[in-house]
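Below is a filled-in request sheet from our internal design queue. Each sheet records the structural input a requester submitted and the sequence that came back. We keep these sheets so that new team members can see what a complete request looks like end to end.

REQUESTER: design group, bay 2
PRIORITY: normal
MODE: inverse folding
CHAIN LENGTH: 264
BACKBONE (tokenized):
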């Protein structure tokens, strides 16, 4: 068995999701720690939070891999009076290294969109752009029934924008915040788009055109990818005979939403 470093893990991610493909605004890569830091246990989470740092310490992990990066926007101090500054101090103080795999991962077969497409059984899959996956549903459904089905697959409430009777045969998916992709999805032949955040002006325009938008929540449309990434990394590390354990975070950052019926 071989000993691994942060660079070992970084290289394995880079093979499937090259870091140089990330968007210009992004901050993916090694954010805390050194490429030479030894790694025997890796913890994967959609977001790195104080709860995830505590979980990593409990597990004895030396590296956290998160989808969403810290320092996403330029920061001018590491004051512990600020949430991010305090969190970065906590990560460094715990001796943890941190890697973010963000928009580079969103363009791959391990993306939230690709994973959800598989779980929904989409067929004849196409990629209208780098962040969209589009395909044919196993059977045509009206929008209302499809929304219920999506909620069951996601395990979360889904908000629908559009005519509930619209027949949907082809569905596009984009994990996270990508409601602007609805026009590309429509051009590719889809009647609806599932994404994680829907802005009001895009909802109005899409609905007016006869297109349907589903808002499944940023967290719930992406968290599934971390499980697949964990499986990929563990298999690659095992195949290469590295002595590294890969764990998936048990921290859930968002509870289920209350419906109007439950609130009555």
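RETURNED SEQUENCE:
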């Amino acid at each position: 068995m071989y000993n691994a470093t942060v660079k070992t893990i970084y290289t394995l991610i880079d093979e499937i999701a090259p870091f140089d493909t990330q968007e210009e605004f992004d901050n993916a890569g090694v954010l805390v720690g050194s490429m030479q830091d030894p790694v025997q246990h890796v913890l994967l989470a959609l977001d790195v939070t104080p709860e995830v740092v505590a979980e990593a310490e409990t597990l004895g992990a030396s590296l956290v891999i998160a989808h969403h990066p810290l320092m996403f926007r330029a920061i001018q101090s590491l004051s512990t009076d600020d949430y991010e500054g305090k969190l970065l101090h906590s990560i460094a103080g715990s001796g943890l290294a941190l890697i973010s795999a963000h928009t580079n991962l969103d363009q791959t077969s391990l993306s939230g969109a690709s994973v959800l497409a598989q779980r929904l059984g989409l067929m004849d899959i196409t990629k209208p752009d780098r962040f969209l996956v589009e395909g044919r549903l196993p059977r045509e459904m009206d929008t209302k029934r499809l929304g219920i089905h999506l909620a069951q697959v996601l395990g979360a409430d889904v908000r629908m924008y559009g005519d509930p009777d619209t027949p949907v045969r082809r569905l596009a998916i984009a994990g996270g915040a990508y409601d602007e992709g609805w026009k590309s999805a429509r051009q590719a032949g889809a009647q609806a788009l599932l994404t994680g955040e829907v802005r009001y002006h895009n909802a109005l325009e899409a609905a007016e055109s006869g297109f349907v938008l589903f808002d499944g929540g940023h967290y719930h449309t992406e968290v599934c990818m971390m499980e697949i990434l964990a499986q990929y990394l563990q298999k690659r590390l095992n195949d290469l005979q590295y002595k590294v354990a890969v764990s998936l975070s048990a921290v859930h950052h968002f509870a289920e939403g209350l419906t109007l019926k439950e609130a009555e």
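SHEET NOTES:
- The first strand starts at residue 4 and ends at 5.
- Residues 260-264 have pLDDT under 50 and may be disordered.
FILED BY: M.R.
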